[in-house]
């Protein structure tokens, strides 16, 4: 409960300009703020801030020597019996989220735990006692004192010294009701983190997931690399890019939609046979519960591998992350039980489409016949430019949402896979796969196209599609063709959407729940 301050705005003007060399400008600005402040909560805290300055205390010091973590202390002294005291002196720091009995009892919160602070006037100087009355919820303080367990069983620090580390001028969200308004939670994530331990835990788990992915790959001899975020061509994926402009070079640039073509250049150069990159991609497209304009991807490339090797890698990597971070291979997402145990199912795209619709696209050869077959199933594919695009549209509308348990969808059409190697036995298909869980695409991989002449023709076909109105078609990257002409080994490639994977593993229904600061419309 926020305790009442006995000071008033009016009486704080007394001695307002008392000489204090290191705070003179601050006091002058503070007086102006107090005179114009209309928010009663902020006005009350500005009043206390003035009183802190009057005590010759800096409310915003440069640093503090914190020697212990709250969570560590709770574990270390868990053996104490009720009423048992120690003479062990500890130094901790954190944010005040509860004050009782005019500051005698304070709940001090760290990132993952809280501890009770007991402040008795007999143990504090006169100045410290005055400071105690000026503390508010949300303030950061440092505490030095001894450890005990109260008769009621709570680990407590008997304060010997309290240091104000950061005075809050606005109150935190009410802790008992949390912060439930989604707009505020996403737009002001710092308030969400203060109020909701679930948000803090989810973002920590995200960090752990990424850490385990990195650890698994480096332990398997993969080299982490970095490639450009600014591209002269928006290649490597089918998506609309964000455009920017480089003033010094007088040229248009694009925020990358994928790092693929640069990572393959590293394979050409022989930097390593196994490389990966974890970074942001940017796509100038719609926002939904599964899409954010900037998102985190990992792309992995392995020389002398193929699509089948990358499927095995996908399963092993995701299974490892599930076990290491969460201790289980089974998860519940919105009441659906997901099982990550290996091996996962594998099925060709055409087989899944035929099972769902009875359409055998393998026996359909012309674009017009493919469109007619789709139309008979209630799918308008009139704008599809190729046979493969029709297949993809039917799959998206009739199959995708049914793929709840982990599955690798294999053998994608060649004309929607411009960077994938043709299937070694089926010329209209490629050695490409996508991994689906909960009806979502989680990963995309394939045997990499290594023939520069074939890649040139694929790019030319993409240019023809772009001329026909496909805004997401890839540009012609002449330098990438040149790189391939210097020799590219057989290789497998893989991309995994980190955000969607975190959503599944943490039972988060919106991508905004797993991104600390999601993209938001400007507030009017």
From TrEMBL:
<keyword id="KW-0963">Cytoplasm</keyword>
<dbReference type="Pfam" id="PF00152">
    <property type="entry name" value="tRNA-synt_2"/>
</dbReference>
<dbReference type="GO" id="GO:0006430">
    <property type="term" value="P:lysyl-tRNA aminoacylation"/>
</dbReference>
<dbReference type="GO" id="GO:0005829">
    <property type="term" value="C:cytosol"/>
</dbReference>
<dbReference type="InterPro" id="IPR018149">
    <property type="entry name" value="Lys-tRNA-synth_II_C"/>
</dbReference>
<keyword id="KW-0547">Nucleotide-binding</keyword>
<dbReference type="InterPro" id="IPR044136">
    <property type="entry name" value="Lys-tRNA-ligase_II_N"/>
</dbReference>
<keyword id="KW-0030">Aminoacyl-tRNA synthetase</keyword>
<feature type="binding site">
    <location>
        <position position="441"/>
    </location>
    <ligand>
        <name>Mg(2+) 1</name>
    </ligand>
</feature>
<comment type="subunit">
    <text>Homodimer.</text>
</comment>
<dbReference type="GO" id="GO:0004824">
    <property type="term" value="F:lysine-tRNA ligase activity"/>
</dbReference>
<feature type="domain" description="Aminoacyl-transfer RNA synthetases class-II family profile">
    <location>
        <begin position="203"/>
        <end position="518"/>
    </location>
</feature>
<dbReference type="InterPro" id="IPR012340">
    <property type="entry name" value="NA-bd_OB-fold"/>
</dbReference>
<keyword id="KW-0436">Ligase</keyword>
<dbReference type="Pfam" id="PF01336">
    <property type="entry name" value="tRNA_anti-codon"/>
</dbReference>
<keyword id="KW-0175">Coiled coil</keyword>
<feature type="coiled-coil region">
    <location>
        <begin position="20"/>
        <end position="47"/>
    </location>
</feature>
<keyword id="KW-0067">ATP-binding</keyword>
<dbReference type="InterPro" id="IPR002313">
    <property type="entry name" value="Lys-tRNA-ligase_II"/>
</dbReference>
<keyword id="KW-0648">Protein biosynthesis</keyword>
<protein>
    <recommendedName>
        <fullName>Lysine--tRNA ligase</fullName>
        <ecNumber>6.1.1.6</ecNumber>
    </recommendedName>
</protein>
<dbReference type="InterPro" id="IPR006195">
    <property type="entry name" value="aa-tRNA-synth_II"/>
</dbReference>
<dbReference type="InterPro" id="IPR004364">
    <property type="entry name" value="Aa-tRNA-synt_II"/>
</dbReference>
<keyword id="KW-0479">Metal-binding</keyword>
<dbReference type="GO" id="GO:0000287">
    <property type="term" value="F:magnesium ion binding"/>
</dbReference>
<feature type="binding site">
    <location>
        <position position="441"/>
    </location>
    <ligand>
        <name>Mg(2+) 2</name>
    </ligand>
</feature>
<dbReference type="InterPro" id="IPR004365">
    <property type="entry name" value="NA-bd_OB_tRNA"/>
</dbReference>
<dbReference type="GO" id="GO:0000049">
    <property type="term" value="F:tRNA binding"/>
</dbReference>
<dbReference type="InterPro" id="IPR045864">
    <property type="entry name" value="aa-tRNA-synth_II/BPL/LPL"/>
</dbReference>
<keyword id="KW-0460">Magnesium</keyword>
<dbReference type="GO" id="GO:0005524">
    <property type="term" value="F:ATP binding"/>
</dbReference>
<feature type="binding site">
    <location>
        <position position="434"/>
    </location>
    <ligand>
        <name>Mg(2+) 1</name>
    </ligand>
</feature>
<comment type="similarity">
    <text>Belongs to the class-II aminoacyl-tRNA synthetase family.</text>
</comment>
């Amino acid at each position: 409960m926020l305790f009442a301050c006995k000071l008033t705005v009016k009486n704080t003007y007394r001695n307002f300009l008392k000489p204090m060399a290191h705070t003179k400008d601050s006091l002058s600005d503070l007086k102006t703020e107090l005179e114009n402040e209309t928010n009663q909560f902020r006005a009350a805290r500005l009043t206390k801030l003035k009183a802190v300055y009057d005590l010759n205390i800096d409310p915003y010091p440069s640093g503090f020597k914190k020697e212990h973590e709250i969570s560590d202390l709770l574990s270390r002294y868990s053996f104490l019996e009720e009423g048992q005291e120690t003479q062990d002196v500890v130094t901790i720091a954190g944010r005040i989220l509860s004050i009782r009995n005019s500051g005698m009892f304070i709940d001090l919160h760290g990132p993952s735990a809280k501890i009770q602070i007991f402040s008795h006037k007999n143990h504090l100087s006169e100045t410290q006692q005055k400071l105690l009355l000026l503390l508010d919820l949300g303030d950061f303080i440092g505490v030095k004192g001894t450890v005990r367990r109260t008769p009621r069983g709570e680990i407590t620090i008997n304060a010997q010294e309290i240091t104000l580390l950061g005075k809050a001028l606005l109150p935190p969200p009410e802790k008992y009701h949390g912060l439930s308004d989604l707009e505020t939670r996403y737009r002001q994530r710092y308030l969400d983190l203060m109020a909701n331990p679930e948000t803090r835990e989810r973002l920590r788990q995200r960090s752990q997931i990424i850490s385990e992915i990195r650890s698994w790959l480096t332990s398997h001899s993969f080299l982490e690399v970095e490639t450009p975020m600014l591209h002269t061509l928006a290649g490597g994926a089918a998506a609309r890019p964000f455009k920017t402009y480089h003033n010094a070079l007088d040229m248009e640039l694009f925020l990358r939609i994928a790092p693929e073509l640069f990572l393959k250049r590293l394979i050409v150069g022989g930097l390593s046979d196994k490389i990966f990159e974890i970074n942001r991609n940017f796509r100038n497209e719609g926002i939904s519960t599964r899409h954010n304009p900037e998102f985190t991807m990992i792309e992995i490339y392995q020389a002398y591998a193929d699509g089948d090797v990358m499927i095995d890698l996908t399963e092993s990597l995701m299974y490892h992350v599930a076990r290491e971070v969460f201790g289980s291979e089974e998860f519940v997402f919105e009441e659906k039980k997901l099982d990550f145990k290996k091996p996962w199912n594998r099925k060709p795209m055409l087989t899944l489409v035929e099972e769902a619709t009875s359409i055998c696209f393998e026996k359909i050869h012309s674009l017009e016949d493919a469109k007619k077959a789709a139309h008979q199933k209630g799918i308008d594919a009139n704008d599809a430019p190729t046979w493969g695009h029709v297949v993809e549209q039917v799959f998206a509308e009739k199959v995708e949402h049914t793929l709840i348990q982990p599955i690798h969808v294999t053998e994608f059409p060649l004309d929607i896979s411009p960077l994938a190697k043709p299937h070694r036995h089926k010329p209209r298909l490629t050695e490409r796969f996508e991994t689906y869980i909960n009806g979502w695409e989680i990963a995309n991989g394939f045997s990499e196209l290594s023939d520069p002449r074939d890649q040139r023709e694929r790019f030319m076909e993409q240019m023809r599609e772009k001329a026909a109105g496909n805004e997401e078609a890839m540009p012609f990257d002449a330098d990438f063709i040149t790189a391939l002409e210097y020799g590219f080994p057989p290789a497998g490639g893989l991309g995994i959407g980190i955000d969607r994977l975190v959503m599944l593993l943490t039972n988060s229904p919106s991508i905004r729940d797993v991104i600390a600061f999601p993209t938001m419309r400007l507030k009017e």
